[in-house]
Amino acid sequence: MRPLVATVDLAALRHNYLHAKQCAPQRRAFAVVKADAYGHGARRAVQALQDIADGFAVACIEEAEVAREVAPTARLLLLEGCFEPAELPRAAELGLDIAVQGEAQAEALLAADLARPLNVWLKFDSGMHRLGFDIAGLRAWHARLKDAPQVAELNLISHFACADERGHALTDLQLQRYAEVMQLGFDNCTLANSAAVLTLPQAHMEWIRPGIMLYGATPFAELAATTLGLQPVMTLTGALIAVRDIDAGESVGYGGTWVAQRPSRIGTVSCGYADGYPRTAPPGTEVVIRGQRVPLAGRVSMDMLAVDLTDLPAARLGDAVELWGAQLPIDELAQACGTIGYELLTKVTGRVPRRYVG
Ligand SMILES: *Cc1c(COP(=O)(O)O)cnc(C)c1O
């Protein structure tokens, strides 16, 4: 068996969920499990959180079907609403909460013949300009949906564009606009993603929507996950599948971009970009072997990558290699690669087995 596994610590996941709840006392939380729970496996994540989570949020009805199988009674929010009118009856059968993010979705809802009314989250475009109604549209649709037979609760949802940059002016503006729209009167309001859960109590409202923080990664460039009280959930572990000594002047890997400056020991690791390890990892990027950091040597290949073991003479064939996780924060790797933990987590590919602990 190929020695590469993504170990998912479900106890850490639960810890992080409870931490989100502690940040926003008295509030309820939709645990965001879209994109297969940010790559961790939605089925197992929902299972692990089921008895403590107030609800779950997903990106589409296909993801809701999976969550519903595991959590028969939980509130399940479709963050982008129904992509076509034909999904509305199914959403009603599944008992979903749905966002309504534009005219077409709102008209389809009013035209639908549903087995039971849905909890509706009217999406307000407070400044992100991706989905949702402007203030005038929101006012109009609030009036039309308020007493519609298809609507149970009429709720308000919006999303921050820059909450991960503390003190950003757009966040204040979005909060201001949101407060204005709240005056229309809603059963429930929600605004806070992880960044706002962690740093913007005035955005907590009735429901929070933590995503990335559940998985133990930080939404902030300058605030580490551990500083925020979060525990890493996924650890990606490969192994040394070959070790060799090379002379000074020899190069390693595709393109021959890494050249040994001294007689060097090179380890080959069972993880590559086809597993989701970023090919963009720059020279100097590290992995952890026997508790010690060693740098990559040369380009990441599809199924393998090379490391410089010269300063770790104890390293042996078969040693475990942590690509990210408990000893090497995913956010550190993401930052070095010019991306975010979100992307690395969601891009761990299907051939990497997930192993659940905790
Ligand atoms: C993904 C998503 C979230 C969660 O965001 P995080 O930054 O991962 O906490 C919350 N709300 C909406 C609408 C989303 O799409």
TrEMBL record:
<dbReference type="GO" id="GO:0008784">
    <property type="term" value="F:alanine racemase activity"/>
</dbReference>
<dbReference type="GO" id="GO:0005829">
    <property type="term" value="C:cytosol"/>
</dbReference>
<dbReference type="Pfam" id="PF00842">
    <property type="entry name" value="Ala_racemase_C"/>
</dbReference>
<dbReference type="GO" id="GO:0030170">
    <property type="term" value="F:pyridoxal phosphate binding"/>
</dbReference>
<dbReference type="GO" id="GO:0030632">
    <property type="term" value="P:D-alanine biosynthetic process"/>
</dbReference>
<dbReference type="InterPro" id="IPR000821">
    <property type="entry name" value="Ala_racemase"/>
</dbReference>
<keyword id="KW-0663">Pyridoxal phosphate</keyword>
<dbReference type="Pfam" id="PF01168">
    <property type="entry name" value="Ala_racemase_N"/>
</dbReference>
<keyword id="KW-0413">Isomerase</keyword>
<dbReference type="InterPro" id="IPR020622">
    <property type="entry name" value="Ala_racemase_pyridoxalP-BS"/>
</dbReference>
<feature type="active site" description="Proton acceptor; specific for D-alanine">
    <location>
        <position position="34"/>
    </location>
</feature>
<comment type="similarity">
    <text>Belongs to the alanine racemase family.</text>
</comment>
<dbReference type="InterPro" id="IPR011079">
    <property type="entry name" value="Ala_racemase_C"/>
</dbReference>
<comment type="pathway">
    <text>Amino-acid biosynthesis; D-alanine biosynthesis; D-alanine from L-alanine: step 1/1.</text>
</comment>
<protein>
    <recommendedName>
        <fullName>Alanine racemase</fullName>
        <ecNumber>5.1.1.1</ecNumber>
    </recommendedName>
</protein>
<feature type="binding site">
    <location>
        <position position="130"/>
    </location>
    <ligand>
        <name>substrate</name>
    </ligand>
</feature>
<feature type="modified residue" description="N6-(pyridoxal phosphate)lysine">
    <location>
        <position position="34"/>
    </location>
</feature>
<dbReference type="InterPro" id="IPR009006">
    <property type="entry name" value="Ala_racemase/Decarboxylase_C"/>
</dbReference>
<feature type="domain" description="Alanine racemase C-terminal">
    <location>
        <begin position="233"/>
        <end position="357"/>
    </location>
</feature>
<dbReference type="InterPro" id="IPR001608">
    <property type="entry name" value="Ala_racemase_N"/>
</dbReference>
<comment type="function">
    <text>Catalyzes the interconversion of L-alanine and D-alanine. May also act on other amino acids.</text>
</comment>
<feature type="active site" description="Proton acceptor; specific for L-alanine">
    <location>
        <position position="254"/>
    </location>
</feature>
<dbReference type="InterPro" id="IPR029066">
    <property type="entry name" value="PLP-binding_barrel"/>
</dbReference>
<feature type="binding site">
    <location>
        <position position="302"/>
    </location>
    <ligand>
        <name>substrate</name>
    </ligand>
</feature>
